[in-house]
Amino acid sequence: ERGGYKHFMLKEIHEQPDVVEATLRGRVDLVNGDVHATEIGVSPELAREIRRVYITACGTSHHAGIAGRYWIEQLARVPTVVELASEVRYRDPIFYPDDLVIAISQSGETADTIAALKAAKAQGAKVLALCNVVDSAIPRASDGALYTHAGPEIGVASTKCFTTQLAALLMLAVYLGRRRGTLDEGRARETLQALWEIPNQMRDVLGDADYVHAIAKKMTHAKDVLFLGRGLGFPIALEGALKLKEISYAHAEGYAAGEMKHGPIALIDETLPVVVICPRDAHFDKTVSNLEEVRAREGQVIAIATKGDEQILEKSQYQVWLPKVRDEVLPLLTVLPLQLIAYYVAHLKGNDVDQPRNLAKTVTVE
Ligand code: M6R
């Protein structure tokens, strides 16, 4: 049942190219640079009428939501907020009838997310479920559903559901942008084409995982690990830290790279591994200057970077190389080495990777 893999988590990491492909198939229209309306769970009229997107979720699904926000604001120009579902209802939240609330959940049964979406519905907002389990509680309680096609996820640490959520959110952002006239056909086509090519690039990155194992070995005894990223690298930094915490029990923090100087820089010394997500994207120069600040304080930098980047090779102690892709699709690649690092560190420590202590796969209590 684990298909030759030692753990479900490793199997699910390696399934990502196929399940992302399955999530895109039949939905993406590369000829017209568009996404088919029937598959997206939001009617063209609703796509035009909404004035705000309000994303709510927990854990890994919340991290996907942060990437979703960047895409929706950039491509569809709709103001978007992302809120932890466990906070929404305790805050007397405000929803409007022209809000599109997106409840993201792998299981579709997370109690906090259900409570948040009910609060939104009670105030007349429209709710879209982004979910992996057909007909679970969250899509049942929503006005529409956009399904990820990740198949059953058994490992407690979410991996393949995360990347399929990313793929779905980017498709949704393109769909909204096209309906609202904020995204021209050319850019839409290029973005979708880049997304379409991602499964093969994921295969390349995952096929070459030995050096990630070597990096993980060096990190096995670290008590704290810092993950830094900017823009679309920020939610990936959060996700990398969550993965490591969950299964390796090391303390890890994900931070917006620019926020480092506002506090966490005090933690840096020669014992601290710092994973810096610094591919050649629009934020590269700024992120590299954060990387230099870490090096200046003797921190050990593990760079997640673009193949052939001499500057990074010179400035960091360890590197994971990724192919050059369009900025929009980067998170689907940058997260892969972080999942593998968490997996290998946990495995090297002898932890139960699929069933980490104190955690349940589906959290049905608030
Ligand atoms: O099923 P959901 O997506 O609603 O679950 C949300 C979180 O409980 C979940 O992502 C959790 O954080 C995972 N264990 C992360 O790996």
From TrEMBL:
The active site is at residue 361. Signal peptide: none annotated. It is found in: Cytoplasm. GO terms for cellular component: cytosol. Residues 42-182, 215-356 form the SIS domain. It catalyses: D-fructose 6-phosphate + L-glutamine = D-glucosamine 6-phosphate + L-glutamate. One of its GO terms (molecular function) is carbohydrate derivative binding. GO terms for biological process: carbohydrate metabolic process; fructose 6-phosphate metabolic process; protein N-linked glycosylation; UDP-N-acetylglucosamine metabolic process. The keyword Cytoplasm applies. Its EC number is 2.6.1.16. Keywords: Aminotransferase, Cytoplasm, Glutamine amidotransferase, Repeat, Transferase. Catalyzes the first step in hexosamine metabolism, converting fructose-6P into glucosamine-6P using glutamine as a nitrogen source. Homodimer. This is Glutamine--fructose-6-phosphate aminotransferase [isomerizing]. It comes from Chondromyces crocatus. The gene is glmS.
